[in-house]
Amino acid sequence: STRKESSAASDVYKRQLPYIVNIGDADGNFMIDVSDASDVLTLYAKLATTEGLTPTAEQLEHCDVDSDGQITALDASHILTYYAFISTGGEGSFKDFINKYVLTSAK
């Protein structure tokens, strides 16, 4: 029962916080980690296999990390690459990483 109460309290707390959109933070926990890459890949699979399903504006804000207007496996890959970069001593924000390594290489 304590776990359910704790979860319910946590859900209420999360709803009360003003959520700041953080590109790459697919699960909204204010961190970019491997679970975000997994969430984006799962969402991509659902979008790719469900006729008529389109991403919401919020999903695009969080998950379309390369700003191509679509949520794809490549977005998940970019998130995972950033997580590996940070985990091995790399420094910088996700936005800076995307600007430096993803968007410049796309030009």
The stretches of 5 or more residues where confidence is low (pLDDT under 50) are 1-17
Question: What general form does the structure show?
Answer: globular
Q: Assign the structural class, choosing from mainly alpha, mainly beta, alpha/beta, alpha+beta, or little secondary structure.
A: mainly alpha
**Major pleated sheet:** none
Order of helices and strands: HHHHH
Q: How many beta-strand runs?
A: 0
> In percent terms, what proportion of residues is strand?
under 5%
Question: Percent range for helical residues?
Answer: 55-70%
Q: Roughly what is the average pLDDT, rounded to an integer?
A: 83
Distance between the termini: 54 Å
The number of helical segments is 5
What is the alpha-carbon Rg in Å?
A: 15 Å
Key traits:
62% helix; 107 residues; mainly alpha; globular; disordered N terminus
Q: What can you tell me about this protein's structure?
A:
The chain has 107 residues and is mainly α. 62% of the residues lie in helices and 0% in strands. The chain contains 5 helices and no strands. Helix 2 (34-49) packs antiparallel against helix 4 (73-87). The longest helix is centred in the middle third of the chain and has 16 residues, at 34-49. The chain is globular.
